[in-house]
Amino acid sequence: MNMYNIIQKKRDGGALTEEEIRYFVSAYTSGEIPDYQAAALLMTFFFNGLLEDEIYAMTWAMRDSGEQVDLSSIEGTKVDKHSTGGVGDKTTFIVAPLAAACGTPVAKMSGRGLGFTGGTIDKMESIPGMRTSLEISEFVDLIRRNSMAITGQTGHVAPADKKIYALRDATATVDNLGLIASSVMSKKLSSGSDAFVLDVKCGNGAFMETAADAKALGRLMVDIGRAAGKKTVALVTDMEQPLGYAVGNTIEVIEAIETLKGRGAEDITELSLELCAYMLLAGGKASSREEGRAAAEAALRSGAGLEKFRDFVRSQGGDPGIVDDYSMFPAAMFSEEIKAERSACITGLTAREIGIASREAGAGRLAKDDEIDLAAGIMLKKKTGEWANKGETLAVVCGNNEYKVKNAAVRVRDAFSMGNKTPSIRKLVRAVID
Ligand code: URA
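Above: inputs. Below: predicted complex with uracil.
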């Protein structure tokens, strides 16, 4: 097989065969195909789009490029929840312990921050001592003992996706429906779970800005999951404004703990309960979404979810004392308050700008090897639809670099729109695709 002919065929509108795609994926991963030819093919995918069969073939080829985690020794239906990435999304730390407390084993492989959205593994590292790269054998063992574990993606799982994603990131070919769906699902399918609940974010703070695109991505991923024999459901959820009030690393983990204590913001609590309901349904622990929701609410109310979170922290090397003593988390030396210049209603709060500001404050990275300031971030005090009196604090930016904090504060101020009319708030769960 010849890479030149494959590029030419796709460039001219032809359909690649599964064999041709498998050849590209495996030869690029092993280093036989140079970056420039792989980049050229990715660009033909970007401009011409991938046909359904090509998307499936990319998924299977990337899944098969590495190790498949075997969770069959663990009893029950293992469920994974995956978010396509949003600003302030800390739901994993809430739904995984809630679902685990309800008897559904959760096997979660997560990533680091992508673009302006934070990554679960970065957030988890703000818990002192927490180990985030478990050997597969320990990952499996912890799920067996504790019903949940979260680890970073090892280099052995879907290595083709890792290499192709890095090239897409450098060649402006990330935001393509077929490439995103095959990338996400190749990793999910390799990570060993039996069922997936996908949270496809939609809005200015997400990859997919329109509901139509988010639904199309959700549909595609659900179809791939089903074709692979896995129960898969996707929720399309709003990402016009950040989820909850904290955006960063440490402060997001604290907000997740507060939610498990029953003191969470309405949106984060609602989304977590809804995702958990679908996880319990997918895991066979509930016979309807309503029954799953009732069980999730009970686990939140009783504190069973919080106890499971404590076990999770302890089992991965962290100090469970952080649940009661937030002073054990990394602290920020500098902070800057943004105050309302007049009395008005918050008519908009752009998630994307808050995400970028959080990265500017030090909470995210521009390049893959950038260091993260775990204490940096933005604590919102007001969100869309709330009223602020003149001089009231709208948000606090914090971090350990004074210059970065001040710069980020300017962007945070611009992220707020103020007016006299109460805006209509978009529905949090915009569609369910199953
Ligand atoms: N997340 C992934 O894992 N892959 C993509 O292509 C985009 C987001």
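Residues 114, 165, 174, 179-180, 183-184 surround uracil (CB under 6 Å).
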